[in-house]
Amino acid sequence: MLSTQQKEIIKSTAPILEEKGTEITSRFYEMLFQNHPELLNIFNQTNQKKGRQPTALANSIVAAAYNIDQLENILPVVKQIAHKHRSLGVQPEHYPIVGEHLLLAIQDVLGEAATDDILNAWKDAYQVIADVFIEVEDNMYKEAENQIGGWSGYKPFFVDQKVQESDEITSFYLKPVDESPLPVFQPGQYIGVELTIPGDTYRHIRQYSLSDAPNKPYYRISVKRDGKGSVSNYLHDYIKEGDTFPVSAPAGDFVLDLNKNTPIVLLSGGVGLTPLTSMLNTVVKNQPEREIIFIQAARNGNVHGLKEEIVQLSNNNENVTSHIVYSEPTEADRKDGNYDKEGIISFEWLQEVLPHNEMDFYFCGPEPFMDTVYNALYQLGVSEEQIHFEFFGPAKQLEIKQNVSV
């Protein structure tokens, strides 16, 4: 337990951590990987290079500092991170290593300002926070293992089918090598995929959203080729039908609420359509009377993945409406007229296509898309309770832009 004095010290250091947070966490990762390169297996190095992981960690530390005497306030964030940790295979023994290097980074960046009292308070505070994570993750590990068809850690799956969906997106239909039944997942969840790439010292783990409904004899992931992503390129270029690799059980808290029957709007940007396609397929199967509007944004038809599947669902189900937005339509797109709007999703356009705002909104896509959609929903008067979103990779805070004109 933290003393009252320690809590006051933690809260008093929150502003300086807010100012220096990313500098501290960048230094933390630098020292961590230098001293424990084996942990490179766990962390996505692309997110490290983009600065997204240090920023996300800094935001989490600052939130913990401000809420140190009411940690229940950050429990939703803890659970979101814990889902990713469980999918990656983070274990209790990793936490002391992280804590040691976090304190070293604080001391290194703050210098003389990091007094013994401050460092000791943060050492004890880190342990309190780590214990919360360990307890939550332990429950998640047990739940994943004890469910019907569940397992612990990673187990081998094979590629039953590999289907090219567009110039950039390919789907992989995965089945367990041991032919055991697949556990049911919640639409919107993801799995962890572990790959060993020839020539690379460390294995790679990536998390990919499941893009089909649960209760199928396979898990489907639909992967976008990333010019700088060694894992996605390896999947596209080298993984073939029949190949095997380890997979972790489904995880994630960006999930569709199937206990409600309110209308749903799904807004996707690029490959952000994958968790939303799982939601769409699930609603069509389980809630055929529930109104659902699927809005897909992409550059053009050449890179638009799963388009035919979604259009067919819209054509075959009266409760489904589909809209397509292309920012850079090709001449063939213009000739065929196979999209509804050129440009980007805007507040004005949403006003035209949405019958009202009393709906639940789920959206996923690249950062600029996420900011645009969030601000458009704000202008539409949509309440926070109706808004659900997920970033691919480390989360960031979506903010309302003053005098926004989307």
UniProtKB/TrEMBL annotation:
<keyword id="KW-0560">Oxidoreductase</keyword>
<dbReference type="InterPro" id="IPR017938">
    <property type="entry name" value="Riboflavin_synthase-like_b-brl"/>
</dbReference>
<keyword id="KW-0521">NADP</keyword>
<dbReference type="InterPro" id="IPR017927">
    <property type="entry name" value="FAD-bd_FR_type"/>
</dbReference>
<feature type="active site" description="Charge relay system">
    <location>
        <position position="137"/>
    </location>
</feature>
<keyword id="KW-0520">NAD</keyword>
<dbReference type="InterPro" id="IPR001433">
    <property type="entry name" value="OxRdtase_FAD/NAD-bd"/>
</dbReference>
<dbReference type="GO" id="GO:0071500">
    <property type="term" value="P:cellular response to nitrosative stress"/>
</dbReference>
<dbReference type="InterPro" id="IPR039261">
    <property type="entry name" value="FNR_nucleotide-bd"/>
</dbReference>
<keyword id="KW-0561">Oxygen transport</keyword>
<feature type="binding site">
    <location>
        <position position="190"/>
    </location>
    <ligand>
        <name>FAD</name>
    </ligand>
</feature>
<keyword id="KW-0349">Heme</keyword>
<feature type="binding site">
    <location>
        <begin position="206"/>
        <end position="209"/>
    </location>
    <ligand>
        <name>FAD</name>
    </ligand>
</feature>
<dbReference type="GO" id="GO:0071949">
    <property type="term" value="F:FAD binding"/>
</dbReference>
<feature type="site" description="Influences the redox potential of the prosthetic heme and FAD groups">
    <location>
        <position position="390"/>
    </location>
</feature>
<feature type="binding site">
    <location>
        <begin position="270"/>
        <end position="275"/>
    </location>
    <ligand>
        <name>NADP(+)</name>
    </ligand>
</feature>
<feature type="site" description="Influences the redox potential of the prosthetic heme and FAD groups">
    <location>
        <position position="84"/>
    </location>
</feature>
<keyword id="KW-0274">FAD</keyword>
<dbReference type="GO" id="GO:0009636">
    <property type="term" value="P:response to toxic substance"/>
</dbReference>
<feature type="active site" description="Charge relay system">
    <location>
        <position position="95"/>
    </location>
</feature>
<feature type="domain" description="FAD-binding FR-type">
    <location>
        <begin position="152"/>
        <end position="257"/>
    </location>
</feature>
<dbReference type="GO" id="GO:0020037">
    <property type="term" value="F:heme binding"/>
</dbReference>
<dbReference type="InterPro" id="IPR012292">
    <property type="entry name" value="Globin/Proto"/>
</dbReference>
<dbReference type="GO" id="GO:0008941">
    <property type="term" value="F:nitric oxide dioxygenase NAD(P)H activity"/>
</dbReference>
<dbReference type="InterPro" id="IPR008333">
    <property type="entry name" value="Cbr1-like_FAD-bd_dom"/>
</dbReference>
<feature type="site" description="Involved in heme-bound ligand stabilization and O-O bond activation">
    <location>
        <position position="29"/>
    </location>
</feature>
<comment type="function">
    <text>Is involved in NO detoxification in an aerobic process, termed nitric oxide dioxygenase (NOD) reaction that utilizes O(2) and NAD(P)H to convert NO to nitrate, which protects the bacterium from various noxious nitrogen compounds. Therefore, plays a central role in the inducible response to nitrosative stress.</text>
</comment>
<keyword id="KW-0408">Iron</keyword>
<feature type="domain" description="Globin">
    <location>
        <begin position="1"/>
        <end position="138"/>
    </location>
</feature>
<dbReference type="InterPro" id="IPR000971">
    <property type="entry name" value="Globin"/>
</dbReference>
<dbReference type="GO" id="GO:0019825">
    <property type="term" value="F:oxygen binding"/>
</dbReference>
<keyword id="KW-0285">Flavoprotein</keyword>
<dbReference type="Pfam" id="PF00970">
    <property type="entry name" value="FAD_binding_6"/>
</dbReference>
<keyword id="KW-0813">Transport</keyword>
<dbReference type="InterPro" id="IPR023950">
    <property type="entry name" value="Hmp"/>
</dbReference>
<dbReference type="GO" id="GO:0005344">
    <property type="term" value="F:oxygen carrier activity"/>
</dbReference>
<dbReference type="Pfam" id="PF00042">
    <property type="entry name" value="Globin"/>
</dbReference>
<comment type="similarity">
    <text>In the C-terminal section; belongs to the flavoprotein pyridine nucleotide cytochrome reductase family.</text>
</comment>
<keyword id="KW-0479">Metal-binding</keyword>
<dbReference type="InterPro" id="IPR001709">
    <property type="entry name" value="Flavoprot_Pyr_Nucl_cyt_Rdtase"/>
</dbReference>
<feature type="region of interest" description="Reductase">
    <location>
        <begin position="149"/>
        <end position="406"/>
    </location>
</feature>
<dbReference type="InterPro" id="IPR009050">
    <property type="entry name" value="Globin-like_sf"/>
</dbReference>
